[in-house]
Structure formats: C-alpha cells, structure tokens
Amino acid sequence: MHKEGKVVPLAAAIDRSARALSPCLPVLLLQVRDKAALQLRQGLQALFDNADDTLFEMADKATGRADQNLYFEAMRDVRLKRKSIERGFLDTFYEAFARIGLAETLESLSALQGHSPLERSVAVQGMVDRVLSRDGFVLQQLNLRFAALLDQALDEQRNPLGPAALCGYFLEAGRNLGVGASVKLVLLKLFERYLLRDLDLLYGEANQLLASAGVLADLQPAPRRRAEDRRNIARRAPASPALVGEAGADSAGQAFVASLQGLLAPARGRVAPRLQAAGGAQPISTGDLLRLLTHLQHYVPAPGEPDDFNLGQQLEQLLLRVSVRSGTRRRIGTDDEDMITLVGLLFVFIEADDNLPPSLRALIGRLHIPLLKVALLDKALFSRASHPARRLLNEIAAAAIGWETEGDGQRDSLHLRVERIVQRLLNDFSEDCAVFAELLEEFLAVAQDERRRNDLLEQRTRDAEEGRARALQARQQVQQVLNLRLHGRVLPQVVVQMLEQAWSQVLLLAWLKQGEDSVAWREALATADLLLASIAPQGEPARLLEQVPDLLKALRDGLASVALDSAATRDFFLQLEKLHLRACGGADATADPALAEVRVEHAIVLAIADESACGPRLHLDSQAADLRQVQRLRIGAWIEVMDDDEPLRCKLVARIDSSDRLVFANRTGMKVREWNRAGLAQALRRGEVRLLDDGLLFERALEAVLEQLRGQQAQ
Fold first, then answer.
1. Residues 437-491: pLDDT tens digits?
2. Distance of CA 176 to the CA centre of its chain
3. Rounded-to-integer distance, Cα 366 and Cα 309, Å
4. Measuring CA to CA, which residue among 295, 287, 319, 316 is closest to residue 369?
5. Which of 118, 297, 322, 648 could in theory staple to 641 by disulfide, Cβ–Cβ 3.0 to 4.6 A?
6. Residues 655 and 635 sit within 8 Å (Cβ to Cβ)
7. Could you tell me which residues come within 8 angstroms of residue 464 by beta carbon, excluding any fewer than 6 positions away?
8. Euclidean distance between CA atoms 677 and 659, whole angstroms
9. In a 3-state reduction of DSSP, which class is residue 282?
10. Separation CA 297–CA 366 (nearest Å)
11. Which residues pair with 671 in a beta bridge?
12. How far apart (Å, rounded) are the C-alpha atoms in residues 283 and 14?
C-alpha cells in the first residue's frame, strides 16, 4: 500500500527532471507540488483510459464514413500521443511551480485561449467557472497559504493549481495532437470529468498539509462536501451524482434496500432457523450476526477442496447452539435476513456468470461472507459506485476477464494476487471496511503495471498489423499497375523480369514511404512507361536518343534505392542497350537470344508472405444481425473462441479497415486470432465464438437480481 509518507518520492518519479528540489521554493510548497502531481497524473491516466471508449461510441453513432474515420483516426492519435501529452502536461506543471508568483503566469491562460477557436475558449472558461463556483472557498484558502509561504500576494490566476492554469497545461500539451475541433472538445470534457471534478480533494489535501505544518492553521476549515474515503479511490469511479458525506451515501443505500423489502418478502423464512420452527424466537442483533459470520468465514473451503459449505445450514447450527446456551430461541432479524437473501442472490448470479473465467468465479465465490458483512455494516455498498468493496470486486473481474480456463495462465502473478486478496479478507476482515480500500489501492497499482505492459504489447501488435495491411495494400496496387501495362503484351523477357522482380520494389517503396499521390510514385510509374515505350520500334530515333539519358538515370537511381545486385544491374543495362539499338533498327532480333520476347499471359502476383484468408468471403447482407454485432465491437471488447481443446479468451486490439481484418490478442497482448467481418459474423452464428460482457460485475449482478425479483413478483 502506498502510504502518505511515500507520496513525495512517487510523485517525483513522474518526471525525472523534477527530482532536484528547487532551492528557491520552500520545502512545504514542493511537497504540495509533488502530492498534487501524483493525483493529476492518475487523473490523466483515467482520462486517456476512457477516451478510447468515448471516441469509439462517437464513431459508432456517426452517420457518415468520413466522420467515423475522423473518430477512429483520433483514437489512434490519442493512443500514440497520450504519453507525450502526459509528460508535456507535467513538465508545464513543474515549470509553473518554478515560476509561482511571477507576473507572466497571469498571461498563460489568455495566451492559450487566444490561439484557440471561440467554441473551445468558451468551453474552457465554463469549466473554470464551474470549479470556482464549486471549490472557490478551498482554493481561496490555498491561495492565502501559498501567499504566506512566498511572502507575497497570490491570486487564483497565478496559482499553478488553479483551474485556469490546469486547463492551460492541458491545452498546451495537446496543441500538436492533430485532431479535429470536435475531438478536442471531447477531450476537454473528459479533462473536466477526470481531473477538475475532484479538485476539492487536491485542494483539501494541500490545505491540510500546510495547516498541519502551521501555515495559517487558524483559517476556518471548509465544509465537507464529499466522503473522506473518496480521497484515493473515487477518481476512477464512473460519474455519479455527488453524495453529501458518508451519512448521505449510507442513507441512500438504506433507502435502496428498504425499497426492496416487498420484493424480498416472499423469500423470508428460508434462512435458518426456519420461522415456522422458531415461533416466538427473539432476533439476534446485527452485531451478533456479524460475529457469527466472522467465525464462519474462517471455514470457507479453499479452491480445490470439496465445497459442501452452505451458509444457511451453518448459520442454523450456530443459532441452535446460541439458543441452547442462552435458554432462549434465537433467529435472524427480518432486515438482516433480507440482506442475506439479497447478497446470496448476487453471488448466485456471479457463480453462474459464464462471462467470468471459472477459476475467477470460484475465487470470488469465497468472498460471499465478507461482502455480506460489508452490506450489513454499510448500505452505501448499494448506492455508491466508488465504494471500496464494490470497486475491488469490479476491478478484479475486469483485470481477470482474459484468464484462460486451464493451463499455466491460471497461476500467473495476477491470479496469485487475487488469491492473496481473498485469503487476506477471509483471515483478517472483521468489521473494519478500511481493509477493502487498502486492498483496492494495492490491487490497482499491480493491475495498472500489468495493463501498461500489456498495452505496450498490444500497441506493437496493432502497429505490426497496420504495417502488414499497408504492405498488402501497396503490393495489390503495384500488381494492378504492372498488370495494366504488361498483361497480354509481347515484350522482351529481360524487361518483364526487371519490372516484375526489381522495379516492383521501387514502386512499393514509393507507395509505402510517400503514398499514392506522391511525386515519387508518379515518377516511378512514368519511368516504367518510358522504358516500355523506348523498346518499341521507333519512328523517330532522334527523339529516343534525347530521352535515353534521363531514362537511364531514373532507372539507375531507382534500382540503387532498392539495393539491386550490381552485377544484375550491369547485365540489365547491357541488354537494354541492345534493345534500344534494335528499336532504332540497328540490331537483329534473332541474333541475340537475350532479346527473345514472351507473351505475358498470366497476371503478375508479387511474392508475399502468407496472408490469412481471415475467414470465408460471405455476402455482407447474409447475416445482418450478426454483422451488426461485429460492426459494433469496440477496441478492447472480449470474445471467447470455442476451440477443440479448451475455450480461448481474447480481445479486439486492431480493426484494419483497408483489408477488412479484425485482430484479436490474448491478455498479454499477443495476437492469437483474426477474422474479416463476415467470417467473424459466421463464427458467431455457428456458436464457434461468443461475445463476453465485460461490464462492471457488481452492477450487472445487481441489475440481474432486481430483474429476477420483479419477475417473480409479477407472476
């Protein structure tokens, strides 16, 4: 777990250039800077982690192909440039702290907005105004404390942590992103959601650090607007309505559970001891029930052990013992019984959810009692998406969706980490829910490290596949232009061989490096055309003599660019000289076998690496529903392939439109499958592949349970 005392070195590691402490700034100010840098960096990571999905949704909703390509290209640019944007943002942030209090910082935002379109400037000003309206009080206190440290007046505009300054850093870092105005507005909205939204936490921690050190410690504290336990974990949670403190979140949770009493009532009496056998029995307190559950959680079977553990039966036996010892029959209270039923239904769904790998379902099933205890202690589990226990469950499921059913992958480092988390909760969790926040923080750190490694491998896979697709497109284009010029004609064999084997490489190089519209491509084609024209019988030999020097130079330069063997080049030019003499009537075609002509009867197919068929070529309208499913697949979506040996889980890492290919990689980023759209649609229809639902596990389980209960009530 990252303790507060470790924040400074962690933040300093963000940018190695910032490790040297500025001698002109107080140490306290540097501590505030580094602590803030850590939170801002985490916010940027969350922003870019979600930018891909947001842009894909916009592409999916786009009506025109051009708009779709715009968003897909923006997704690629954002993925490629996110690291440089993060570095640029933090570099500017550190520079702003180095210049804190200087007059030129006043001009930073206005200068940036002066270079921005009006719509973006208005959006930025709106973002700044919302932060000042919401968090102006704590920011003003921070300004006062900074001013006291620096011994000079300081307002919001010169504060490097002010919303205007932060927006300026982001605009400056993304200036060369190369995307359209609409995409930049989307990124600004994400910036507000993942960085500006939680500035009260940043300002609050900075004020607390300075006040604890005696800097204007007598200032009136700001009223608490959010729960304290959101400090480290809420930023990653999905956007939800703000709750006023822990009491508000718990009240909302209690109201939610109370609203389910009618739906849960038919199930009462099924948790032991049964009500009909316990008439007049007194309910035990929630505290006593928690102690019984703590006792039982130590006996939950380990993976691989016979699973004959039934929570209801175990509770019945314990309550009978309590009844015998106390001389009074005891039962579980109605509200607690409803909670046991609700959590039990959640785990019934989880243990049957085939979107999760079987090994993960078995591990999560062991958390039934710990999650039940959390629900009894804190009803906010049901109302707050950022609740540590709820988030821990969701994060584990999200990180492990790519686990394979069998094999060595089942015992990798992430799997072992989850096993340790489960065992830690079973061993140590009594009634202090803070352990979930601690384990969540530790797990996120490990999962993010693994995700960064996997993202790098996935990017390499994408780059390789995009390069492969581009090379294939180039080869097809070169084949087309050569066949247009050669197929069906009778030509000297030496010229046909040179164009097919050597000049095709010159054309490929020009297309790949500079594109189809480039001067290099047009000149390479023109040289091929001039070569073919020069070996035909010449009505005007003098004109050929004028063209030959330029032709020979272009041929030599082109063949040199693809490093053709010098001996082969020399032989070709010797033969070409004879062909030119023959074209001018100065050589006998039958005298030299090297000048023999051939008919180009077969289409030229350049030698290429094996290209997968990517599935059968079907008519796109033959399975419309399946094709729509395929077309809606987003980058990062998971599927399960029903192989003969065992199911294989993989996710979509690249969509190559030019060659109609969908490329899938396993959890480590290694390519394992590819299809074209029609081929994948057919595999879905045949049941050879199925789509996995990688939505938040707790939310999916809760929604399914509510639907089940409402369906039972309607019967």
1. 999 998 988 887 777 777 777 788 778 877 887 888 888 889 889 999 998 899 9
2. 22
3. 10
4. 295
5. 648
6. yes
7. 671
8. 10
9. strand
10. 9
11. 665
12. 55
Element (H, E) at 709: helix 697-714
In 353-433, which residue ranges form alpha helices assigned H by DSSP?
A: 358-365, 368-377, 388-399, 413-428
**Unique residue bearing structure tokens 């803070």:** 434
Tell me what pLDDT residue 17 has.
37
Structure tokens at 596: 């023999």
Residue 345 has a pLDDT of 93
Please tell me the predicted confidence (pLDDT) of residue 465. 79
Q: Is residue 398 exposed (0-12), middle (13-18) or buried (19+ Cβ within 10 Å)? A: middle
pTM equals: 0.54
One-character DSSP codes across 574-610: HHHHHHHHHHTT-S-TTT-GGG-EEE--S--------
Q: Report how far apart, in Å, the C-alpha atoms of 268 and of each of 336, 666, 713 are.
A: 10, 45, 14
Residue 519 is predicted with a pLDDT of 92
| β-strand partners of 655 | 662
Question: Residues in the chain, how many?
Answer: 715
Compute the radius of gyration of the chain from its Cα atoms: 34
Structure tokens at 419: 């096993």
Query: How high is the pLDDT of residue 258?
Result: 86
Beta strand pairing call for 282-284 and 330-332: parallel
What residues pair up with 662 in beta bridges, in sequence order? 655, 675
pLDDT at 523: 92
Question: Helix, strand or coil for residue 330?
Answer: strand
- For the 611-701 domain, the top CATH level (class) is mainly beta
SS3 188: helix
Q: What is the DSSP string of 79-90?
A: HHHHHHHHHHHH
What pLDDT is attached to residue 415? 81
- Domain chopping of the chain, boundaries: 4-221, 246-432, 488-599, 611-701
Q: What is the reported pLDDT for 109?
A: 43
Exposure on the CB side of residue 699, measured as CA atoms within 13 A: 15
DSSP codes joined into one string, 656-670 = EGGGTEEEEE-TTS-
What pLDDT does residue 239 have?
A: 37
Complete DSSP assignment for 113-152: HHTS-HHHHHHHHHHHHHHHHHHHHHHHHHHHHHHHHHTS
Q: CA angle at residue 475 from 470 to 480, to 5 degrees?
A: 125
Element (H, E) at 596: none
Among candidate residues 331, 309, 312, 311, the one with its CA nearest the CA of residue 320: 331
Give the CA angle between residues 100, 106, 107 to the nearest 5°.
Answer: 125
Q: Do residues 99 and 200 touch, judged by C-beta distance below 8 A?
A: no
Judging by beta carbons within 10 Å of its beta carbon (0-12, 13-18, 19+), is residue 651 exposed, middle or buried? buried
Q: Which residues contact 499 (CB under 8 A, 6 or more apart)?
A: 482, 485, 486, 528, 531
The low-confidence residues of the chain, meaning pLDDT below 70, are 1-25, 101-120, 178-180, 221-250, 272-279, 304, 306-308, 404-412, 539, 586-594, 607-624, 644, 715
